[in-house]
Write a structure and sequence with these properties.
single chain; about 475 residues; mainly alpha; Rossmann fold; Glutamyl-tRNA Synthetase, domain 3; 3-stranded parallel beta sheet; 3-stranded antiparallel beta sheet; elongated; Glu-tRNA-ligase_bac/mito
Length: about 475
């Protein structure tokens, strides 16, 4: 059997972090088993489904690197197929017409609530004489569900879960206008797409019991289910925006790398010993359903940021240049030219050791992309105005005479100058840093000198003077 998993979001908003983790688990299980990962857009809610939301879902999955193995399926386009299945169930006696009016249904519910009973449809139309039906009422089609016994879900995460059938009512398959319901559409789509494993949030567990009855009514094989716990905030409460429950695009805008987000989401509810840093190759090799925990995972933005720090330090320099340039351009309002890119690439090894996000990397590296004269921070200006220019004036000819433009040679020149003038090395380095970067914080200043090159470094010193 070839494993086929799916991710089936509703395009009524952004791809939130919980949905991204569900997609990741489905993708990993398909890759682990050599199977297929499919994408279905459940756009049957026509009032709330939007093209913008669909685009955000596709873009978010693409950014995360979760590729799907066939063109995405759109649920609404398959409405006639869903209705066809319901009509067939009706013809085979597996479903029936229900003419109950909204008023009748509300009266049923009120009566059940008053008696302290579960609120569910009582099946009164199962054997109703059509002659007693009020005129003008368009019937819905309901599943003829078993009223005795139990429905058992053998879940790969939750274990065996039992539902008493007298608690599962005859759910609606087709509305009065002939349109299919979500519960029917999901089952038909999963069957027709050949889905073998349904991995989704444990808030769908009751839905699974009801949907299992639709599979049985059609004599279709039931997929293997795995219901994963929801994600909570650090305080144990249901994850919300105040905890960081934003769209995937927001994490990209925060300057996080997709591999860091993948690694973090993987560890939210799944574990492999004490391993924290897990590569994609390892994740695909190790991932399996039994290792998913039953308790809710807790989202921790600080841990995600720390993971991002690791992946920034190990990312290829050229890739980081491509990623950080848009952040620099957004901050400065200026285009980064070839010279700026070349400097970023030359200095990236030192820059990425000091940043946790692409935003921090952009802030710390922007000085490489500008040309003098440029503005100085208040601290840098005070250093230059407080005697720093005198230091630079005396140091400049010594730098110009450097026999090689290398870190060690440049540092030796600065140290020798400090000794000759009775200054501490910092009193020489800080004016140099202010002149070259416009700030008082940067990678090692002799590294900055080397990256800028002799000509550009001297231009910056001249501009500062």
């Amino acid at each position: 059997m070839t494993v086929v998993t799916r991710f089936a979001p509703s395009p009524t908003g952004f791809l939130h972090i919980g949905g991204a983790r569900t997609a990741l688990f489905n993708w990993l299980y398909a890759r682990h088993t050599g199977g297929q990962f499919l994408l279905r857009i459940e756009d049957t809610d026509r009032q709330r489904s939007t093209k913008e939301a669909i685009d955000a879902i596709l873009d978010g999955l693409t950014w995360l690197g979760l590729d799907w193995d066939a063109p995405e399926t759109y649920q609404f386009a398959r409405a006639e197929r869903h209705a066809e299945v319901a009509r067939d169930m009706l013809a085979r006696g597996r479903a029936y017409h229900c003419w109950c009016t909204p008023e009748e249904l509300e009266a049923q519910r009120a009566e059940q609530r008053a008696a302290g009973k579960p609120v569910r449809y009582d099946g009164r139309c199962r054997h109703r004489d059509p002659a007693t039906v009020p005129a003008g009422v368009k019937p819905v089609v309901r599943l003829l569900a078993p009223s005795e016994g139990e429905t058992v879900v053998d879940d790969q995460v939750q274990g065996t879960v039992r539902f008493s059938n007298d608690q599962l009512d005859d759910l609606v398959l087709l509305r009065g206008d002939g349109t299919p319901t979500y519960m029917l559409a999901v089952v038909v789509d999963d069957h027709d797409m050949g889905i073998t494993h349904v991995i989704r949030g444990d808030d769908h567990l009751t839905n699974t019991a009801r949907q299992s009855l639709i599979y049985q009514a059609n004599d279709w094989p039931t997929p293997t289910f795995a219901h994963i716990p929801l994600i909570h905030g650090p305080d144990g409460a249901k994850l919300s925006k105040r905890h960081g429950a934003l769209g995937v695009d927001a994490y990209r805008d925060m300057g996080l790398l997709p591999e860091a987000v993948r690694n973090y989401l993987l560890r939210l509810g799944w574990s492999h010993g004490d391993d924290e840093i897990i590569s994609d190759a390892q994740a695909i090799e190790w991932f399996d359903l039994p290792a998913i925990g039953r308790s809710a995972a807790r989202f921790d933005m600080a841990r995600l940021t720390n993971l991002n720090y690791h992946y920034l330090r190990t990312a290829e320099d050229a890739r980081l240049v491509d990623l950080v340039v848009p952040f620099i351009e957004a901050n400065t309002g200026k285009t980064v030219d070839k010279t700026g890119r070349a400097r970023l690439l030359a200095g990236m090894a030192g820059l990425k050791e000091r940043a946790k996000t692409l935003i921090e990397l952009a802030e710390s590296s922007a000085f490489y992309t500008v040309e003098p004269p440029f503005s100085f921070t208040d601290k840098a200006a005070r250093i230059l105005d407080g005697g720093g220019r005198d230091v630079l004036t005396a140091l400049k000819p010594k730098l110009e005479a450097a026999t090689a433009w290398e870190d060690a040679v440049l540092e030796d020149i600065a140290r020798a100058h400090a000794e000759e003038t009775g200054l501490k090395l910092g009193a020489v380095a800080q004016p140099l840093r202010a002149a070259l970067t416009g700030t008082t914080v940067s990678p090692p200043i002799f590294e900055v000198l080397r990256v800028l090159g002799r000509e550009d470094a001297m231009k910056r010193i001249d501009a500062a003077l």
